[in-house]
From TrEMBL:
The protein's name in its UniProt record: Dienelactone hydrolase domain-containing protein
Organism of origin: Jannaschia pagri
Taxonomy of the source species: Bacteria, Pseudomonadati, Pseudomonadota, Alphaproteobacteria, Rhodobacterales
Matching InterPro entries: AB_hydrolase_fold
Top-level taxon in the UniProt lineage: Bacteria
SUPFAM superfamilies from the UniProt entry: alpha/beta-Hydrolases
Amino acid sequence: MARAVGALRDVDVTGWIGLGYSAGGTALWRAVQQGAPLSHLFCVSSTRLRSEGPIAIPHRVFFGAEDPARPNDAWVRQVPKRATVFDGAAHDYYLDTASRAVRETERRILSDLSDPSTLPNHAK
């Protein structure tokens, strides 16, 4: 994980959007904590985020309510700026591309990216 975080942190990703699933989302989150200049970050079923603190860029996390490893409700309320927890969905809900949870994940990502309040200051 440390090697992946370091590599992500050191790549010129200015203005890029991060989308990470499971451990990939955690690696991107940590890279942002260490200065990776992503414009937005979306983490899907990144349960290891339960040990992470906040980040400053626009972001949203997604979890299935039936995922036993997801962060607890206090973390979901306090750490991420935006969070979505899908009732009846498991950790791997994203594998069923026809599911309501996947369609809603896609919709919310697109909505967040088109919301001017989530744009970095230099892009407004």
